[in-house]
Amino acid sequence: MTHPVPPALREFGAATGAGATALLDTPIHEVEALLDPSTNAFFFDVDGTLIDIAPHPDAVEVPASLIRDLTALSEVANGAIALVSGRAADVLDRLFAPMSLALSGIHGAQMRRVPGAALEQPGAPLDPAVRADLSGVGDAHSGVLVEDKGASVALHYRNDPALGPRLEEEIARIVARDPRGLTVLPGRMVFEVKRRGYDKGAAVRAFMDAPPFAGRIPVFLGDDVTDEAGFAAVREMHGIAISVGRRLPGADVTLPHAQDVRALVKRLARSAERRV
Ligand SMILES: [Mg+2]
């Protein structure tokens, strides 16, 4: 399915050269002007995009105001908003309770197309031997936190950044046993191993095939390398890719911080309420 390029983005791109290189730190009101909750579908990465990164994955906080604003945005966007995260669905539900949203967990391995629907699992669990070996690598280093999600294993090394190259090498040796089946996602102070064949882009395409997303212009907001697959998917559909915190390849515009994304969500929800 293709969409017309939104006129605002076309003008914006012509004026700034956006698309080839995302503008760093685009003012929120300029990003807001590109978007319309009545015609856009919104896909949000979570960590580093909607919420601030914490020293430990369990230490993150979802502000109550964000839950309120996302709920309001979902209403004005007719439900066309989804979380697209590396976290597992049950963790996302716990973080954002009592709100329930459409979501994709573990980089596309899990999908819930509309709130309350059954969880689809397009990504099969990793081989138990691979999971055990990856856990073993993590456990051998005191600065590494192992997060075994079944469909993926993430090794976080935020507590000892110098470990990065060594960890990467040890993980590569395990992945090399099945290079056609397994892949490593490098993120911010994390390496995550998962099966090939699904990613955040595949999740976006699947959402866009069905209501309430189908027929809308997709917008993807993300802060990390794994979000580039989401950027590519929305750009195929003439959508808008918003990079957070740094200029990622494939982004149209960049917002400096997760707090700017939260401010944008609030403004979009309110501007649409005013229009109704
Ligand atoms: Mg992120």
UniProtKB/TrEMBL annotation:
<dbReference type="GO" id="GO:0046872">
    <property type="term" value="F:metal ion binding"/>
</dbReference>
<dbReference type="InterPro" id="IPR023214">
    <property type="entry name" value="HAD_sf"/>
</dbReference>
<dbReference type="InterPro" id="IPR003337">
    <property type="entry name" value="Trehalose_PPase"/>
</dbReference>
<dbReference type="InterPro" id="IPR036412">
    <property type="entry name" value="HAD-like_sf"/>
</dbReference>
<dbReference type="InterPro" id="IPR006379">
    <property type="entry name" value="HAD-SF_hydro_IIB"/>
</dbReference>
<dbReference type="GO" id="GO:0004805">
    <property type="term" value="F:trehalose-phosphatase activity"/>
</dbReference>
<comment type="function">
    <text>Removes the phosphate from trehalose 6-phosphate to produce free trehalose.</text>
</comment>
<keyword id="KW-0479">Metal-binding</keyword>
<comment type="pathway">
    <text>Glycan biosynthesis; trehalose biosynthesis.</text>
</comment>
<comment type="similarity">
    <text>Belongs to the trehalose phosphatase family.</text>
</comment>
<dbReference type="Pfam" id="PF02358">
    <property type="entry name" value="Trehalose_PPase"/>
</dbReference>
<keyword id="KW-0460">Magnesium</keyword>
<keyword id="KW-0378">Hydrolase</keyword>
<protein>
    <recommendedName>
        <fullName>Trehalose 6-phosphate phosphatase</fullName>
        <ecNumber>3.1.3.12</ecNumber>
    </recommendedName>
</protein>
<dbReference type="InterPro" id="IPR044651">
    <property type="entry name" value="OTSB-like"/>
</dbReference>
<dbReference type="GO" id="GO:0005992">
    <property type="term" value="P:trehalose biosynthetic process"/>
</dbReference>
